[in-house]
Specification:
Chains A, B: This is Putative damage-inducible protein DinB. With about 160 residues, chain A is mainly α. The first copy, chain A, is built from five helices and two strands. Chain A has helices at about 1-20, 25-30, 40-55, 70-90, 115-140; strands at about 100-105, 110-115.
Chain lengths: ~160, ~160
């Protein structure tokens, strides 16, 4: 599981670097689908990982800077701070934690739901990869090649 | 690892069902980014999973029907046949297989490269989720809601 998180963190860093080469108006431009803009998608990726893993750590996630005020550098710093908070949990993950349970209130229905830790961990992994796929379409709309999504050849298994 | 494959297979099935509600010309329409069309993306997802896992099984992957001739039903059937071939390997996966090695010729450079099985397994998982994220953008372009990408609340951990 750790390798998939490391993949996501590496890809996310590559996308922040990609953003440095793109005009801010392109990063903030309203687009069709997903979360609606490149920068807001990156904000959402950071927040969702941080939010869920904080809950698994038994902590209430802090409020992050508003995405409206976020520059690439603000978001990169925010991502690094969130990473520092959650990484110890990911590195300590082991299969004995799979069936632990977290109760969480569904934002849409208001109902309390119970999830296995293993379900949430995988949800967080898939969530980031999915949204990065959306960024790859928008990058081509701008006329720039996207960050590679390949997991192989990233040195993660050396 | 298995749960992430089961997630991908369930989401893929949902996308085939989604395709049944969409005009074929929309499925084949050339779009910006990714593999360029909805149907070709689904073909690519099926083929890449089947191709890599066949190699891990020590088998040469068979040629699949050409994507140009593929209808949704052809692809759905093709996906089911590929699934039947590779699923036994996925269900038999265990951590002792992580460091086994596969040599494969890079299509771009022609060079032979060596990968750990664990690297390929995770590459295949991330590959499908990434391309599904692209479909979610195109579905909004068509004006239809995409299949949910949530891994939670799919009954995968009941």
């Amino acid at each position: 599981m750790l390798k998939l998180f490391e993949y996501n963190w590496q890809v996310r860093k590559d996308w922040f670097d990609w953003c440095d080469q793109v005009l801010e108006e392109e990063l903030l431009k309203k687009r069709t689908g997903g979360l609606g803009s490149i920068l807001y998608t990156l904000y959402h990726i950071v927040y969702v990982e941080y939010g869920w893993i904080s809950l698994l750590q038994g902590k209430e996630p802090k409020t992050l800077p508003s995405p409206e005020d976020a520059s690439v550098q603000t978001l990169r710093d925010c991502s690094a701070r969130c990473h520092a908070e959650i990484a110890p949990f990911i590195y300590a993950w082991n299969s004995s934690m799979e069936d632990n349970r977290l109760s969480d209130q569904n934002e849409d229905t208001g109902e309390w739901e119970s999830y296995k830790y293993g379900e949430i961990i995988r949800h967080v992994i898939a969530h980031e990869i999915h949204h990065i796929g959306q960024l790859s379409i928008w990058s081509r709309e701008i006329g720039k090649p996207p960050v590679t999504a390949n997991l192989i050849r990233r040195g993660l298994f050396d």
